[in-house]
Write a structure and sequence with these properties.
With 253 residues, the chain is an alpha/beta fold. 38% of the residues lie in helices and 29% in strands. The chain contains eight helices and 15 strands. A hairpin with a 2-residue loop joins strand 8 (146-152) and strand 9 (155-160).
Length: 253
């Protein structure tokens, strides 16, 4: 498990590193840690699936943790995010960043170990990636990073959250088979598949994505596809509410 710490307090970085390495030793779960003194430094080094887990301080000089987390999410949705904070005032923003957990400072060894144990339980599912052959090389991407896939002759143009595009020699049936167990991928029209996670809205037989792209939806299937997108989002909301952070937030309210 590769873990990033983002905090402008050196003492906190040192303590988090020590606790996470101690967890790795006691649980016999390999842990690698990297520390960053600012949100800007973290984003400069961040690249898609380079980290499994990110501990992000909320209140930092320069870019705050919420802004850094939102930018991280624009590039990748594959890693787990845990906020570190001395105040609970930011909690509504934490869910917009798809936070896995939050930890209030000062934190204890037991609290950090609990978070790490929860992370270990979900990481195998979160970290499954897909392989595509593009530009004469094999590219690995997390399902959540795929925004859309569109057929173009004998190729498939796959758009990722960071704006990057992969041109793969494969058919849409092959793509759908590769993602068959992932309910977020919806075939909205002939040769067009979109990720429900990145749908902004469905209206007027058109699917509007978060990146501004618009795709026509088959008229006869528009109601069904819209319902499938809603079902996916409601399911994700329920999952977040039942996560450790969600249960704790309801308890505090």
């Amino acid at each position: 498990m590769k873990i990033a710490f983002v905090d402008d307090e050196p003492e906190c970085l040192d303590e988090m590193g020590r606790l996470c390495r101690s967890f790795g030793e006691s649980s016999e779960y390999p842990v690698e840690t990297v520390s960053f003194g600012s949100g800007e430094a973290f984003l400069e080094a961040f690249d898609g699936g380079c980290f499994d887990l990110v501990f992000m301080d909320v209140y930092m000089k320069g870019m705050d943790g919420i802004a850094a987390a939102l930018e991280m999410r624009r590039q990748s949705s594959g890693c787990l995010l845990v906020f570190l904070t001395s105040s609970r005032d930011f909690m509504p923003d934490a869910f917009s960043c798809h936070a896995f957990e939050y930890v209030t400072k000062p934190f204890s060894k037991e609290r950090i170990f609990d978070v790490l144990s929860d992370a270990v339980k979900v990481l195998p599912q979160e970290q499954k990636y897909l392989e595509f052959a593009a530009d004469r090389k094999t590219v690995r991407v997390f399902p959540g990073e795929i925004v859309s896939a569109v057929t173009d002759a004998h190729y498939l143009d796959i758009t990722l959250t960071g704006g990057e595009k992969l041109r793969c020699r494969m058919t849409m049936p092959e793509f759908m088979e590769k993602t068959a167990r992932d309910t977020r991928f919806l075939l909205v029209n002939k040769g067009i598949a979109v990720n429900a996670e990145h749908i902004l809205e469905c209206k007027n037989n058109c699917c509007v994505m978060e990146n501004g792209a618009k795709f026509p939806v088959r008229v006869r299937d528009s109601a069904r596809i819209e319902q499938m997108a809603l079902d996916y989002h409601f399911d994700q909301i329920r999952r977040r509410q039942n996560s450790p952070a969600g249960r704790r937030l309801r308890k505090e309210r």
